[in-house]
Amino acid sequence: MNSIESTQNDSSRRDVLTVIEAGRAAQDYWKNIWRQRELLYFLIWRDLLVRYKQTVVGTAWVLIRPLLTLMIFSVVFGRLAGLPSNGAPYTLLVFAGMLPWFFFATAVSDCTSSLSSNGALVGKIYFPRLIIPMNSVLVCLVDYLVSCLLIVGVMVWTGTTPTLRLLALPLLTLWICGLSFGIGIWCAALTVRYRDLRHLVPFLLQLGIYVSPVGYSATIVPERWRFEYSLNPMVGIIDGYRWSLLGNDFVAYLPGVGISALMTLVMIITGIFYFRRCEKTFVDFL
User: Fold this and answer.
1) Which of 144, 146, 155 shows the shortest CA–CA distance to 110?
2) Sequential DSSP letters for 128-145
3) Rounded distance, CA 136 to CA 123, Å?
4) How far apart are alpha carbons 121 and 112 in whole angstroms?
5) pLDDT of residue 22
6) CA dist., res. 269 & res. 279, Å (int)
7) By C-alpha distance, which of 98, 112, 206, 183 is closest to 143?
8) Which among 108, 88, 138 has a CA at the least distance from the CA of 248?
């Protein structure tokens, strides 16, 4: 009898035994992110509630902000400055630039401060820290999807007939998610050590809306500078959105789209590499 109980106890111990191997945590990093997906869901839900809690207009703010900016940009760049739209409705031209830009700017800004604002959580429990900036991008994705509802209204108002190019919009959304995530994790990791970036990144994003072709078409840039201008990855993305929404009224600059896609891939790969390299020291600086 004692022998049977001893055998059962040994079996139970083996069932709960956890073997710690050197480098195992790094090998299972992506598996751990999947195992912690419920934490990611909870963080997204928490941030959405906090963002619109005690607001006057609630989630309608997601629609009001781009509408107001759309009106101002259309008047300033289209009416007063008289910038060309290449035959396309200027309002839709601006909207196709604003839609990805607002998502990108908000996601990068939120990622930058995400680790600092979740310092208490990072210091108490272990989980793959990449979940935090990932959460920031996904929360902004929800706002972006709500803003996409305006596409129908703007196209009806401008009398634009949608084409099959509109089917490329999900792929472009995935592209802007990847770029926001790649640059966002760079900023998040650097901000833990260099707090000045919390002030510098929003300032650069404010300048970026004028450097990127948000309120105007990239065709006003001289042809000999178009390729260098496309080193800004937002140029290719905005061109892609206009190609999708404006139909045959817009011709995308393909070399620029290619270099922007390459820049996005570089930012994602290098961003993940740098973030994981710094991840072990985050607690020491927060």
Assistant:
1) 144
2) -TTHHHHHHHHHHHHHHH
3) 19
4) 16
5) 60
6) 15
7) 98
8) 88
Tokens for 82, please give them: 């008289």
- DSSP state letter for 71: H
List all residues 6 or more positions away from 57 whose beta carbon is below 8 Å from its beta carbon.
64
Phi first, then psi: give them for residue 88, nearest 5 degrees.
Answer: -90, 155
Token pair 């111990």 is found at 13
Cα separation, 27 vs 104, in Å, equals 31
- pLDDT of 107 reads 93
Report d(CA 161, CA 254) in Å as an integer: 23
Look-up of token digits 């956890």: 18
What are the C-alpha distances in Å from 32 to residues 25, 38, 126, 182? 8, 11, 11, 20
The angle, 0 to 180 degrees and rounded to 10, between the axes of the packed helices 90-117 and 169-193 is: 40
Q: Which residues of the chain have pLDDT under 70?
A: 1-27, 54-59, 249, 286
Token match 């009398």: residue?
A: 159
45-56 as b/e, with b when 16 or more CB fall inside 10 Å?
Answer: eebeeebeeeee
Q: What is the distance between the alpha carbons of residues 82 and 184, in angstroms, rounded to a whole number?
A: 35
Pairwise CA distance, residues 32 & 19, whole Å: 16
Of the candidates 136, 104, 103, 106, which has an alpha carbon nearest to the alpha carbon of residue 118? Answer: 136
User: What pLDDT does residue 3 have?
Assistant: 54
